[in-house]
Amino acid sequence: MRLRDVAAIAVMTTGLSGCEASPPAAQPQPAASASERVEKIGSLGSQYKQGMAYGPFRKLLVADGWKPDANLDECLLLTVGDDYKKTCETPATSGACDTCKEFREIEACTDDGYCYMTFSGHGAKLNIKAYGDILRLSKDGSEPIVQEWKLTAE
């Protein structure tokens, strides 16, 4: 190695020894993914029980900030039938119509007694399956009975 090369290396080494490594710039953290948001709320909480009457279950949901999230026309179509507009005009046959209007979270009820409800909030959707006479919901709240529910990311 030549003297000139050794001198150049010495200058470069001396110049670098005075430099301090700076800490890396803070990297922006990505927003929580939808599945992480659902994990944060985890479950609904111990006050929610399978087998509860839907009326009290619903009251807890609303108090916890969940919002009814369903399409009224879809509820009427699936619950009452294709001629729901005509059926809902007649007071004698409008029970299911009133229930869909009052409980906006109802997606549909089947002929065999199952009802499906949807709420949104806390970055998630909550789908509920209940069983029982939906018309008793607006009368005394004793039915339907919550069978199961599922949280999914919005």
User: What is the tally of beta strands?
Assistant: 5
- Main sheet attributes: strand count, strand direction, barrel closure: 5 strands, antiparallel
Distance between the first and last residues' Cα: 67 Å
Shape: globular
Low-confidence stretches: 3-20
- Output the structural class: alpha+beta
- Our count of domains comes out at 1
Instruction: Kindly report the average pLDDT value.
Output: 77
Helix content: 25-40%
Give the SSE string.
Answer: HHHEHHHEEEHE
Count of runs of 4 or more consecutive helical residues: 7
Strand content: 15-25%
Q: C-alpha Rg, in Å?
A: 30 Å
Gist of the model:
This protein has helices at residues 3-17, 34-41, 54-63, 72-79, 84-89, 95-102, 135-139; strands at 67-68, 106-109, 114-121, 124-131, 145-153. It is of the alpha+beta class. Strands 1, 2, 3, 4 and 5 form a five-stranded antiparallel beta sheet that branches.
What would you say this structure looks like, in words?
It is globular, with a radius of gyration of 30 Å. It has helices at residues 3-17, 34-41, 54-63, 72-79, 84-89, 95-102, 135-139, and strands spanning 67-68, 106-109, 114-121, 124-131, 145-153. Helix 4 (72-79) packs antiparallel against helix 6. Helices cover 39% and strands 20% of the residues. The protein starts with a helix and ends with a strand. It is α+β, with helices and mostly antiparallel strands. The chain contains seven helices and five strands; from the N terminus they run H-H-H-E-H-H-H-E-E-E-H-E. The protein has one domain (44-153). Strands 1, 2, 3, 4 and 5 form a five-stranded antiparallel sheet that branches. 18% of the residues are buried.
